[in-house]
Amino acid sequence: MLVKGDLVHCPKLGEVVVLRNHLLRVDSRGYIDHLAHSAHPESLSILMHEDPTIIPLGSFLMPTFCDLHLHAPQFMYQGTGLHLPLMEWLNEYAFKAEESLDADHQLAESVYKRLAARLIEHGTGAVLLFGTIKTETNLILARVMQQAGIRAFVGKLSMDISSRPTYVESSADASLEAARLFCDQCIDVSSSLSTHERLVEPVITPRFVPTCSNELLAGLGALSAEKDIRIQSHMAESHDQVHHVLSERGADDMDVFAQCNLLTSRTVQAHCTFLTPPSLMRLAETGTAVAHCPLSNAYFSAEPFRLREALDAGVRVGLGTDIAGGYSVDIMNAMRQAVAGSRMREGARISGHYRADSGQEIRVLSVDWKEAFYLATKGGAEALNLAKGSGSFVVGAPFDAQHIQVFDAASGEGTGGIDFFRDPRPGGLTLEILEKWWCVGDLRNRKGTWVQGKSVDSSSFH
Ligand code: GUN
Ligand code: FE
């Protein structure tokens, strides 16, 4: 694959870079093997032998989005029942829905196929998934994602405590055995493929502290270390959950997870809303990444995550939709809500700024659209420890990309919901135009998606 035109990426937090009129080539295994201005001598020599696909003026390629937190079975009731506090909502909706998919694999397959189609439509190329407790249902999820061409990290839920007697594993030992089996079987889903074609991986997934005994948590920590497998869970999410853990366990989430070796550089913890700056430092020290889910936080958490402080502390952070605690599968919405929430935090401070205790430094609490763009792409890829360079365009990185059109090259008309009142063609793609797309763009702007160099198509999954 050889393409020529404008590319946009965020190599660093807050830095949106437009690579104008570049030539990008993808090798047969889906990795970028050439990237330079199209007038660069190496580009010119490539162009002597091969005609590129032209990305027209008004369009650009950018990395696909990473969604660091999504409950696949909850997609079934996305957008309903958000009136309850978290612990009641889990009992009333989440556990029941998950159990119903464990009991009906045809339904599970159709929910997961539809989810895959929606992810592709919304430009999500990599996703960290929570599934259900039954192994087979999670293998269906892994197979669907592999077939759809989405990079998916699939978590079979581990729960040996539950408010629902029919949705629980029988003991810590049984749960651990099932987690081990799932890891092996999930690896088998793609093991017959070449390494570069393998898109799915298992994730060790203690649901959250309230549903896992210390014995189970410690066993999962050991399993992850033994097999070098990723970990995901929920941490410090809501008032009712935080109080529940303190009263039942006499410790907080952070201490419980730390004691069980579940805070590692392989770990992504969702939410972390109630973590104070010293706790955020502990996340940074252990290498634990955070899935920031701003929409879900607005419903369940009562407080916004300390995003700026986490970034300043060196915590790896990406964005999550938290379907169905968040109702939108679109990471564009997560980007916007991350910025909006951070601005509310800043606005709540007198004059919007404060002097740090330690000196004259003025700290800003808000993040801007460029920072959110990074979190949705490279930040997410780094939080997931994806292959080197992932989430951006560099030689050696897998080509995971989306084609976005902001205006039509022939007419100069804005695409989808984007309106221009001056012809945008003479200036071409500017940061101002990108910001406009970031604010008001939608599905209509997305003209194609690739993962590992392969075009992925939502229509084959409807
Ligand atoms: N904590 C434990 N389980 C869940 C879940 O399914 N959704 C959310 N948002 N939080 C959780
Ligand atoms: Fe969640």
Automatic annotation (TrEMBL):
Needed cofactors: Zn(2+)
Swiss-Prot/TrEMBL GO biological process terms: guanine metabolic process
User: Is the keyword Oxidoreductase in the record?
Assistant: no
GO molecular-function annotation terms?
guanine deaminase activity; zinc ion binding
Alphabetically sorted, this entry's keywords are: Hydrolase, Metal-binding, Zinc
* Pfam families per UniProt: Amidohydro_1
For this entry, the protein name equals Metallo-dependent hydrolase
Q: Which organism is it from?
A: Polyporus arcularius HHB13444
Q: What is the lineage of its organism?
A: Eukaryota, Fungi, Dikarya, Basidiomycota, Agaricomycotina
